[in-house]
Amino acid sequence: MDFYVQKHVTFLFLLVTLFLSASEKTTQKQIPRTVLALFDSASEGQSHDIEDYLEMPLNFLGLNVKYHDIQKGIPNNVAVEDLVGIVTWFDATTKIPEIDDYVRWVIQLIDQGKKYIIIYDTGFYNEEQYVDLNLLEQLWHRLGFRYGDQWINQTNLTEFIYSDPFLAKFEYRLDNEKPSYPIITQIEPKHHKSSVKSNPKSKQVKEICEIPSHENSHIAAADQKKVIRTTSSKVKSHLIARWNKSPNYDSDLVVTGPNGGCIATNYAIFGISTDKGYFRKWIVNPFTFFTSALQLKNIPIPDPTTIAGNRVYYSQIDGDGWNNMTYVEGFNEAGYLCPDVIYQLILLPNPDLPVTVGPIGAELDLDWFGTSKGRNTAKKMFELPNVQVGCHTFTHPFDWPFFDHYTREKELPYLKKMPQKHGNKPVEFYGDESGGLSSASATDQNALEEGYTIPRAYGLKPFNLDQEVFGAIALINSLSPPNKKVNLYQWSGNALPNDKAIGLVYEAKVNNINGGESRFDNVYNSYSWLSPLGRTPGDHLQVYSSSCNEIYYTSEWNKNYYGLLCVIDTYKNTGIPIRTSPMDLYYHIFSGSREGGISAVQQIINYVRTQKCIPLSASDFSAYVMGFVSTRFDQVDADSWQIMQRGQLQTIRFDKSSSRSVDFGKSQGVIGQKHLHGSLYVYLDESIESPIITLKDNESFFEEPAGVIPYLIESRWRVSNMNQNWPKEMGFRTEGFGQCEMCWRMPEEGDYHILVERKNGEQERFKSNAPNGRLKITLPSSKIEPITVKIEQFSHLTSESSEKQQRKK
User: Fold this and answer.
1) Residue 14, CB half-sphere, CA atoms under 13 Å: how many?
2) Which of 70, 125, 328, 649 falls between 20 and 30 A from 364, CA-CA?
3) Average pLDDT over every residue of 343-367
């Protein structure tokens, strides 16, 4: 009888265990990462405004942006479970189709916990459409503010009585400039239709609000007193304008709350045209604004800028100018071409820095404009261990949208401006120092994007998209060593391929890059000039490069040939106080035509060597961005997250986490952590498919805390396949370029033995000390082949040796 009782008890115990286990799995909640960006195609430039200004800050905060044209109606394919919220950028001309249904749809999403953010205009007050005001009032009460249709245009009587020093005066301070603005008033947020007043002048909660005095706040002296404000404990106003000293005409120009927020027309970015170009700066801190309006707190962020605790560095060279002669002294007399100069002065002297070289197919194809000399130089380059093989199209399209609806007849007027084949005589790309770029008149450009005189560099035969992708890749592969093939497709010209073109690159199983033109320097001195991680015109992602190339610094390679040096300013400004981008050294083969171009590249490389970075291929970075887009987080509990579908991305960032650290005892697949700029960077093991990160309070605020096991702080090489058998030993695999320097945080200080084993079986042993628990290891240069490392504590080895001696006795 006891046996049967015990059997049933055991069976019930197993059932309960399985139930609890299943319950734990079902309680894991997916963290939404998508923002739906609504734009109006009827208003020129709106989608570009969101991409130019908003998407980069949203990417930095770990979010993907999906675009939808409001003229196509309410989107019906929104995955609500992955939706953080909606961001709109409309103007006064926007006419929203079926506007009442649209407002109901927004209210429904807010009631499901999604956020709604208005940038610029609401789109509700177009004179040609009518919206149900009672319905609109329900929306305002959910948001906690009322964005009205009254405007203050004569702003000479306006003063800013409050400006949040942490949010509303970021890059540009509104001292004398006071653009016109709408009246926006804060109201008490309500969440149920039954509690919403239909009267626009419904009773509002009023309280005495002390306007804080701050030396940097824009508060008039007369307003350093108590003022009557409509306010809510949950909704916050970050920029308040007062007209004619009357509280009745106060406007809350920047508002955030639990259900979203708004930035009034003209008050997100200040822009003005000057004789030196277009000047623009953020008025509002977009990172802080979106963090507050989207309620992004204590969430994991996939970060492609960092690997193994160090900032990513990569470099790509577009093949333009492969047949160009050089003017560099010592090379021009001997008849060398630009790629010969790049090979001799850049690639050979820097074997520890990877670079992807992407020739243009037509400049290597003997049936087009290729030469035996140019093909031999390509072969020599591709044989270098630090050179990865890329492809920069076949005929180098300048204006990609021109070919969306291509016909040969459409291209015929431009053929006479393109190079013609004359025997084996080499044809120079940018031979007139401008190539397809020019300030030609609009009549000359016809259907081309402004600035282009020809749609592509080479037009001997009709345009063929398969040839641009598969043909170019096959040709370049034929010149590559057997162990190397094209792994990166580098977009040309305006880098605006359609989804079909990007899809063919995916079909070819190579990564892609280029476009974006990010810069942040003394001339373009704002985060608003930084591009997002990429663009998705359809189903496929185009990855943007992280920096501008030399064309943008040299007036299209016409002067100031050293201009690429300015990219160092972009490196600095995107690295501190927050790391928004990796370091990307992006240039063309024709930089080898001028001493200034070569000198600029050499000096940039010298600067990179002074930085803590991890050199990787451009294809690697492209893969990290793809991993950024695909990553999914499931919340296990308040301090734990499981990471899935991350591809090759290996770094997860937690902002405002100086007082937090990884709980290695409860985490899985975590190799290391590093605190930087107030954020916590967590490095994952690429061999673990779905790691788990668990955080805890950090007791050592000013130093990396000791863990129960060793963990990596930073490394110049990638680390993977961690094998923890502590306190006996630990092992891992590592690979990279040049000499490796890495730092580990050991559980305790002392001496450690390191065993290094190479692929060919060679071994090397040495001892290293870990003062304050920081073990620094320097490994000699590798041939870019992975090596295995094993670390053992000296005291453990000593105790083992003593035990063996005792056994012998």
Assistant:
1) 5
2) 328
3) 97
Instruction: Considering only the C-alpha atoms of the chain, give the largest distance between any 2 of them, rounded to a whole number of Å.
Output: 103
What are the DSSP calls for 674-702, one per residue? EEETTEEEEEEPTT-SS-EEEEEE-S-TT
- The pLDDT of residue 425 is 60
CA distance 364 to 372: 8
d(CA 216, CA 284): 15
Q: Which residue has the tokens 């199983």?
A: 509
Region 252-256 average pLDDT: 97
- Cα–Cα distance between 248 and 242 in angstroms, integer? 8
* In 246-390, alpha helices (H): 286-293, 338-342, 372-383
For 663-667, the CB contacts below 8 A with 24+ separation are 663/639, 663/694, 663/695, 663/696, 664/707, 664/708, 664/709, 664/711, 665/707, 665/708, 665/709, 666/640, 666/692, 666/694, 667/691, 667/692, 667/693, 667/694
Q: What percent of the chain has pLDDT over 90?
A: 75
Q: What angle do CA 642, 643, 649 make, to 5 degrees?
A: 160
Residue range 181-224, pLDDT digits in tens: 999 999 876 654 433 333 333 333 333 233 333 333 333 333 43
DSSP characters for 319-361? Answer: -TTTT-B---TTTTTTT-BHHHHHIIIIITT-TTS-EEEE--G
Q: Which residue has the higher pLDDT, 440 or 462?
A: 462
**Structure token digits, residue 297:** 């707190």
How far, in Å, CA of 215 to CA of 318, rounded?
50
Q: Which amino acid is at 616?
A: L
Bridge partners of 29, per DSSP, are: 635
If you average pLDDT over residues 330-339, what whole number do you get?
91
Q: Picking from 51-65, 248-262, 768-782, which range would have the lowest pLDDT averaged per residue?
A: 768-782
Give the separation between CA 735 and CA 787, rounded to whole angstroms: 6
Higher pLDDT, 227 or 570: 570
Contacts of 366 (CB under 8 A, 6+ apart): 372, 375
Count Cβ neighbours within 10 Å for each residue of 785-802 and write b for 16 or more, e otherwise: eebbbbbbbeebeeeeee
pLDDT in tens, 94-153: 999 999 999 999 999 999 999 999 999 999 998 888 999 999 999 999 999 999 999 999
The chain-wide mean pLDDT, for the chain, equals 87
Per-residue pLDDT of 11-43, as tens digits, reads 444 444 444 444 444 478 999 999 999 999 988
Q: Any idea what DSSP says for residue 211?
A: P
Q: How many Å apart are CA 8 and CA 671, to the nearest integer?
A: 44
- Beta pairing class for 310-318 and 583-588: parallel
Cβ burial 338-355 (10 Å sphere, 16+ → b, else e): bbbbbbbbbbeebbbbbb
- Helix (H/G/I), strand (E/B), else coil: 636: strand
302 closest CA partner among 538, 572, 641: 641
Kindly report the CA angle at 232 between 230 and 233, in degrees rounded to 5? Answer: 145
Q: What is the separation of C-alpha 36 from the centre of its chain, rounded to a whole number of angstroms?
A: 17
Helix (H), strand (E) at residue 314: strand 310-318
CB atoms within 10 A of CB 583: 25
Q: Are 253 and 181 in contact (CB under 8 A)?
A: yes
CA distances, 770 to each of 187, 675, 757 (Å): 59, 19, 21
**Is the separation of the CB atoms in 653 and 45 below 8 Å?**
no
Question: Percent of the chain at pLDDT above 70?
Answer: 85
Crossing angle of the two packed helices 133-143 and 99-111, in degrees rounded to 10: 30
